[in-house]
């Protein structure tokens, strides 16, 4: 043995030991270790690898490290991140730690290198040791088939004792402490004994495991995987002398004693527990019954939240959470009043209908907070399977309760507030009718004994306060709609959006982005510009996003530029939100022939659109462009038929429709347009183009037309009037039957506009045209 003294940089390893001739990858993240690698690379690439006694120590000293380690050569370095490296090393010699120097910024060590192994064994003993190791290896490979057969073949051919011992120490799956023991053993005979002891122990452990598995296999069928696992646990406990203190069936019975439920439910659960106990030898059935019993025990049969009804507190919470929405608040307070008087009161089934982003879902959360009840949400968007509502029958693989029963279980009480979100997005297919399943859920006469296919016991839903939300009623079947109390949540006016932004959205976004009120301010004029030119919606969802954009950019300014506060005004708004995203076509500046401003409803609120008509020489063709839907095409045809019937009354030549072509166009042809409210608009534009009489630029209109010229009522009037107000329209023509809708609106919606009610086309023409068409002399 030659003793060689060296001074080398040190890396402390956690949970691993590297032996000579081992090639290993490992990651380095500690600063001292990275600096040690850099120092080694500047020298001869040698480094001393020591293993920590306790892997949790972050900054080890000499007492935390083993005395023996390995001198290794660095073969490759890969940078993973700023603070992490992957290093490949090859162990060369074992070495003893003589002195550890805690220098900055790395550890250094004085070591004694052992380049030879102590070997005081004669050749006969060596041959015997080699044969014994080959026998152990053969036995180990038989017991452990995962061990590489190619590696076994190479080791069986090795006759050099030293190489065989070192290769086995390197390749066997040892723990790092066992490998450290091999490293510290310089004497070959002692190293052989350590290795032989480890291999003998491993073979015995594998044999014990196989004996346990053999005992299990005698009792059960190979395909019953779950049962095999249970029997393995049982045999292991028997071998260790342990025993179960309480069986699953006993635990279920203990839970049943504490369950709040009627006798019918308890009797059913007790029968299922008895079945569970008797099916312990049938793993597949046992698992099904277990899941069923656990579900029944977790249902809130007679458990309810205590009523804490306070009218003033509820009103205060509703006012805090939402601006406007008076109808919704009024209905909730009415329900609470009845609850206070009767002590019970029938839970209403409300359906909030309105455009996206108007706060329908958040209203349900506020109601739950106002009533101090648990809140659960069920999303019905895209649900097509009736079993999602009623549950699956237990006979099916993977059966589970329906969403209603699962939501009740999650709530933990039988009287929560349950939100049925996007009820209009549910659909039907061959798996059943979702809407029909909801009929029983939402019918107060039936839902006191709602039957879920999985639970098979009546579930009381009569005390659940259901709140449904929808964007439109057109896709909801009439029988289901009849069971709900529909409350419209309409588009917000600019004034309402201003209040919502200032009172709710801005404080919320400031809190989310870690700012303080004193650090950011948005002027009213800037907020008004955001509402008009950076969002186009009925609700306030995009408005909240834009405010969030401003808060994020302001937070960055405060951090990077160390600003104390950021003020956002009209002039600086483009810096935070970019260029304006939306522009509105304002009223035309002059009266024109054949151009009429119409009003339309969209899912994001109301818009104004121009209808243009040209008359040109031809052979009586009637052309429609602008990607119009079937309803609008029919309205146009009804309008032209009405005009042709008026030829005798107004100064229109008899052969006009045979010698002239009429072309109707609605701009933005890439956008599909449809709806029953453009009839009067197209008819007015055609009459203007045919007679040559200009249409007043300050007039907009909405309404459907019949063949006889009557004006029919339309929907979405609030959104349309808001759009007209933004476009600075002075006069709006609406059907006379929509008068009640206007009277129910807040005056601020139509403030500054004249509302003209039309019963027939003649009323529309009197308002819209510069002058009425001249009548023939015969008239």
TrEMBL record:
<dbReference type="InterPro" id="IPR004815">
    <property type="entry name" value="Lon_bac/euk-typ"/>
</dbReference>
<dbReference type="InterPro" id="IPR003959">
    <property type="entry name" value="ATPase_AAA_core"/>
</dbReference>
<dbReference type="InterPro" id="IPR027543">
    <property type="entry name" value="Lon_bac"/>
</dbReference>
<keyword id="KW-0346">Stress response</keyword>
<dbReference type="GO" id="GO:0034605">
    <property type="term" value="P:cellular response to heat"/>
</dbReference>
<keyword id="KW-0547">Nucleotide-binding</keyword>
<feature type="active site">
    <location>
        <position position="677"/>
    </location>
</feature>
<feature type="coiled-coil region">
    <location>
        <begin position="242"/>
        <end position="269"/>
    </location>
</feature>
<keyword id="KW-0067">ATP-binding</keyword>
<dbReference type="InterPro" id="IPR027065">
    <property type="entry name" value="Lon_Prtase"/>
</dbReference>
<feature type="active site">
    <location>
        <position position="720"/>
    </location>
</feature>
<dbReference type="GO" id="GO:0005737">
    <property type="term" value="C:cytoplasm"/>
</dbReference>
<keyword id="KW-0378">Hydrolase</keyword>
<feature type="domain" description="Lon proteolytic">
    <location>
        <begin position="590"/>
        <end position="771"/>
    </location>
</feature>
<dbReference type="InterPro" id="IPR054594">
    <property type="entry name" value="Lon_lid"/>
</dbReference>
<keyword id="KW-0175">Coiled coil</keyword>
<dbReference type="InterPro" id="IPR008269">
    <property type="entry name" value="Lon_proteolytic"/>
</dbReference>
<dbReference type="InterPro" id="IPR046336">
    <property type="entry name" value="Lon_prtase_N_sf"/>
</dbReference>
<dbReference type="Pfam" id="PF02190">
    <property type="entry name" value="LON_substr_bdg"/>
</dbReference>
<keyword id="KW-0645">Protease</keyword>
<dbReference type="GO" id="GO:0006515">
    <property type="term" value="P:protein quality control for misfolded or incompletely synthesized proteins"/>
</dbReference>
<dbReference type="GO" id="GO:0005524">
    <property type="term" value="F:ATP binding"/>
</dbReference>
<comment type="similarity">
    <text>Belongs to the peptidase S16 family.</text>
</comment>
<dbReference type="InterPro" id="IPR008268">
    <property type="entry name" value="Peptidase_S16_AS"/>
</dbReference>
<dbReference type="InterPro" id="IPR020568">
    <property type="entry name" value="Ribosomal_Su5_D2-typ_SF"/>
</dbReference>
<dbReference type="GO" id="GO:0004252">
    <property type="term" value="F:serine-type endopeptidase activity"/>
</dbReference>
<comment type="function">
    <text>ATP-dependent serine protease that mediates the selective degradation of mutant and abnormal proteins as well as certain short-lived regulatory proteins. Required for cellular homeostasis and for survival from DNA damage and developmental changes induced by stress. Degrades polypeptides processively to yield small peptide fragments that are 5 to 10 amino acids long. Binds to DNA in a double-stranded, site-specific manner.</text>
</comment>
<dbReference type="Pfam" id="PF00004">
    <property type="entry name" value="AAA"/>
</dbReference>
<comment type="subunit">
    <text>Homohexamer. Organized in a ring with a central cavity.</text>
</comment>
<dbReference type="GO" id="GO:0043565">
    <property type="term" value="F:sequence-specific DNA binding"/>
</dbReference>
<dbReference type="GO" id="GO:0004176">
    <property type="term" value="F:ATP-dependent peptidase activity"/>
</dbReference>
<dbReference type="InterPro" id="IPR014721">
    <property type="entry name" value="Ribsml_uS5_D2-typ_fold_subgr"/>
</dbReference>
<dbReference type="InterPro" id="IPR003111">
    <property type="entry name" value="Lon_prtase_N"/>
</dbReference>
<protein>
    <recommendedName>
        <fullName>Lon protease</fullName>
        <ecNumber>3.4.21.53</ecNumber>
    </recommendedName>
</protein>
<dbReference type="InterPro" id="IPR003593">
    <property type="entry name" value="AAA+_ATPase"/>
</dbReference>
<dbReference type="GO" id="GO:0016887">
    <property type="term" value="F:ATP hydrolysis activity"/>
</dbReference>
<keyword id="KW-0963">Cytoplasm</keyword>
<dbReference type="InterPro" id="IPR027417">
    <property type="entry name" value="P-loop_NTPase"/>
</dbReference>
<feature type="binding site">
    <location>
        <begin position="354"/>
        <end position="361"/>
    </location>
    <ligand>
        <name>ATP</name>
    </ligand>
</feature>
<dbReference type="InterPro" id="IPR015947">
    <property type="entry name" value="PUA-like_sf"/>
</dbReference>
<dbReference type="Pfam" id="PF05362">
    <property type="entry name" value="Lon_C"/>
</dbReference>
<feature type="domain" description="Lon N-terminal">
    <location>
        <begin position="8"/>
        <end position="203"/>
    </location>
</feature>
């Amino acid at each position: 043995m030659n003793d060689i003294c060296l001074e080398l940089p040190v890396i402390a390893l956690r949970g691993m030991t590297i032996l000579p001739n081992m090639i290993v990858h490992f990651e380095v993240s500690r600063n001292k270790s990275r600096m040690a690698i850099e120092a080694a690379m500047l020298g001869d690439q040698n480094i001393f690898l020591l293993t920590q006694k306790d892997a949790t120590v972050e900054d080890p000293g000499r007492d935390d490290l083993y005395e023996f380690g390995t001198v290794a050569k660095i073969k490759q370095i890969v940078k993973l991140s700023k603070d992490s490296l992957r290093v490949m090393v090859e162990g060369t010699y074992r070495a003893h730690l003589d002195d550890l120097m805690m220098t900055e910024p790395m550890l250094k060590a004085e070591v004694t290198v052992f380049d030879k192994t102590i070997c005081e064994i004669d050749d006969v003993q060596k041959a015997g040791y080699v044969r014994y190791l080959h026998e152990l290896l053969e036995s180990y490979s038989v017991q452990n088939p995962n061990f590489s057969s190619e590696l076994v073949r190479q080791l069986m051919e090795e006759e050099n004792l030293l190489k065989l011992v070192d290769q086995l120490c390197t390749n066997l799956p040892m723990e790092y402490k066992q490998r450290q023991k091999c490293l510290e053993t310089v004497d070959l005979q002692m190293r052989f004994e350590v290795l032989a002891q480890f291999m003998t122990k491993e073979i015995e452990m594998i044999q014990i495991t196989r004996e346990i598995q053999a005992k299990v296999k005698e009792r059960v069928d190979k395909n019953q995987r779950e049962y095999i696992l249970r029997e393995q646990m049982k045999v292991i406990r028997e071998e260790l002398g342990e025993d179960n203190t309480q069986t699953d069936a006993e635990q279920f019975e203990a839970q049943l004693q504490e369950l709040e439920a009627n006798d019918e439910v308890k009797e059913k659960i007790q029968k299922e527990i008895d079945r569970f106990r008797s099916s312990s030898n049938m793993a597949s059935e046992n698992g099904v019954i277990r899941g069923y019993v656990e579900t029944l025990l977790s249902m809130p049969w007679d458990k309810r939240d205590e009523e804490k009804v306070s009218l003033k507190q509820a009103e205060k919470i509703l006012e805090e959470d939402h601006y406007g929405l008076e109808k919704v608040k009024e209905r909730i307070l009415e329900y609470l009043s009845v609850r206070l008087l009767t002590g019970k009161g029938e839970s209403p089934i409300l359906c909030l209908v309105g455009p996206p982003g108007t706060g329908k879902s958040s209203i349900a959360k506020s109601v739950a907070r106002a009533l101090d009840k648990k809140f659960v949400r069920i999303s019905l968007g895209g649900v097509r399977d009736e079993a999602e509502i009623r549950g699956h029958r237990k006979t099916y693989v993977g059966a589970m309760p329906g969403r209603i029963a699962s939501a009740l279980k999650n709530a933990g009480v039988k009287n929560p507030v349950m939100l049925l979100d996007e009820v209009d997005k549910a659909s039907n297919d061959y798996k059943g009718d979702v809407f029909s399943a909801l009929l029983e859920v939402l019918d107060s006469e039936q839902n006191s004994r709602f039957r879920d296919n999985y639970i098979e016991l009546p579930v009381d839903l009569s005390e659940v306060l259901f709140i449904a939300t929808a964007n439109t009623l057109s896709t909801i079947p009439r029988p289901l709609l009849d069971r709900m109390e529909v409350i419209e949540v309409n588009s917000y006016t600019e004034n309402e959006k201003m209040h919502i932004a200032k009172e709710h959205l801005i404080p919320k976004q400031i809190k989310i982005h870690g700012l303080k009120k004193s650090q950011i301010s948005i002027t009213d004029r800037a907020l008004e510009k955001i509402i008009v030119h950076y969002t186009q919606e009925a609700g306030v969802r995009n408005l909240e996003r834009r405010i969030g954009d401003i808060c994020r950019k302001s937070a960055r300014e405060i951090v990077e530029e160390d600003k104390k506060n950021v003020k956002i005004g009209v002039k600086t708004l483009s810096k935070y939100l970019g260029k304006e995203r939306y522009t509105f076509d304002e009223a035309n500046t002059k009266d024109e022939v054949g151009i009429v401003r119409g009003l339309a409803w969209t899912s994001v609120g109301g818009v104004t659109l121009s209808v243009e008509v040209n008359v040109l020489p031809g052979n009586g063709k009637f052309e429609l462009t602008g990607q119009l839907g079937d309803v609008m095409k029919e309205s146009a045809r009804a309008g032209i038929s009405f005009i042709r019937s008026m030829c005798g009354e107004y100064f229109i030549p008899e052969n006009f429709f045979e010698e002239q072509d009429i072309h109707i166009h609605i701009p933005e042809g890439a956008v599909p347009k449809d709806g029953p409210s453009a009839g009067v608009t197209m008819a007015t534009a055609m009459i203007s183009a045919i007679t040559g009489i200009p249409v007043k630029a300050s007039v907009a209109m909405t309404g459907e037309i019949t063949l006889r010229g009557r004006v029919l009522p339309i929907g979405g009037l609030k959104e349309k009037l808001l759009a007209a107000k933004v476009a600075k329209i002075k006069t709006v023509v609406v059907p006379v039957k929509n008068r009640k809708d206007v009277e129910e609106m807040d005056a601020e919606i139509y403030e500054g506009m004249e509302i003209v009610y039309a019963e027939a086309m003649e009323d529309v023409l009197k308002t819209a045209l510069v002058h009425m068409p001249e009548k023939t002399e015969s008239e």
